[in-house]
Amino acid sequence: MNKQTITLGEREDKPVVKILIVIFGILCLFTAGWWTVFLIKYPDNENIFWAGSIFLFLFGIYQVYAGLGKAKRYIQKENDILIIRQNSLLPAKKFEAKKIKQLEVRSMDMLIHSDEGSKYRIKLGLKYPDLGQTIKDFIIGFAEENDIEVFYKNEAL
């Protein structure tokens, strides 16, 4: 089984960093809980304080989620399957090579056209300026390995 992965974004692979992120998330959750108790105890506070408490709670949940390794963004190819996870909160998209009709390569992005007529856009120049060419080569390599038509489109400004 041939499995290759490109990590998008920061890499927090060291256990110490992951533990610190989880601890920071737990501290945010604790602070949000304490602040909420304070707001309930003294109800004459402004509504903006509730927004701060909700923000701390959601941020704490995300930190724990990221510290446990669930928020990784990556592109992975595994034989005839391409897996893309561009957003740390949304699930990964899986593309089978036999269901991909065409790969459209532009200067700042790529489009994966499926047999059903849907399109999936990968924004290279805006989201990943330092990894753009590496990602482009990685996905083009997947397309060439699986006999997917690669269409290059040059856009003039």
Q: Tell me the series of helices and strands, N- to C-terminal.
A: EHHEEEEEEHHE
CATH superfamily of the largest domain: Pleckstrin-homology domain (PH domain)/Phosphotyrosine-binding domain (PTB)
Structural class: alpha+beta
The termini sit apart by 43 Å
Helix content: 40-55%
Beta-strand residue percentage: 25-35%
Number of strands: 8
Radius of gyration: 21 Å
What is the gist of this entry?
By secondary structure, the chain is α+β, with helices and mostly antiparallel strands.
Main features:
elongated, alpha+beta, 157 residues, 41% helix, 4-stranded antiparallel beta sheet, PH-domain like, 2 domains
Question: What do these coordinates show?
Answer:
The protein has 157 residues and is of the alpha+beta class. It has two domains: 7-67; 74-152, Roll (PH-domain like), CATH 2.30.29. It has helices spanning 15-41, 48-67, 124-127, 132-145, and strands at 3-8, 73-78, 81-85, 93-96, 100-105, 109-114, 119-123, 149-152. Helix 1 (15-41) packs antiparallel against helix 2. The longest helix has 27 residues, at 15-41. The chain is elongated and about 65 Å long. The N and C termini lie far apart (43 Å). 15% of the residues are buried.
